[in-house]
Amino acid sequence: MIIQMTAKGGTAPYTWSATGLPTDVTINATTGLISGTPTQTLINATVTVSAKDTTGRSTQSRFEITVVPPDWTCPSGGQKLVNPGFESGGTGWWENTDNINRHTGALARRTGTWAAALRADSAGGAIISQRAQVPRECAWSTLTFWAKFVPLQGVTDDNDAMRLLLNDEPVFFLKGNTMGTGYRQYTVDLSRYAGQTVILWFTGWGDYKNISSIVLDDFALNAR
Ligand SMILES: [Ca+2]
Ligand SMILES: [Ca+2]
């Protein structure tokens, strides 16, 4: 592990110190270089680095650090969504209209029988959502899902899309005219939400013409 700290202002040179570093990792008091081979597992631990100038004035900076062995699996890891392929219908999901169904034809599921189709138009948009716990002690949490764009009127325009919000924050945007044909898998990194309960909101939206749907299936929120 090598991290070079820098500072500006005050009267150089600076004297560096740090707390919260993993065992066998140190900071060089003169150069601010953090280095060493860590021998301790840490998940989202806080490191505090201080720089003091020649007149005794100091400042601090904090960052989070995760150190795990290459073969790490987290004790509370695994798949965290309920009914991720909709095969129990709407169980575990909230929807604003009849989005989750045994869709057929162009809207048919990727696997099983059920899928969710989000109509992307100007009527306020279709929504499905689920609340999930992202485990605190896992280093990586990844949301994956399969999505297919379906131009219901045969025409694709620039305006139809799907958005993923976590709580109220937009984190992922999928524009229909970039999705090609057929199902493709998409990945969203949720590692920075470790320790949080999040509400995933998938919303379809678009304009009033060339109406389309985005079909979703086979979700997974894997933590490790
Ligand atoms: Ca399914
Ligand atoms: Ca449209």
From TrEMBL:
Pfam family, one: He_PIG
Signal peptide (residue range): none
Record-linked InterPro entries: Cadherin-like_sf, Ig-like_fold
Database matches in Gene3D superfamilies: Galactose-binding domain-like (2.60.120.260), Immunoglobulins (2.60.40.10)
Name the record gives this protein: Ig domain-containing protein
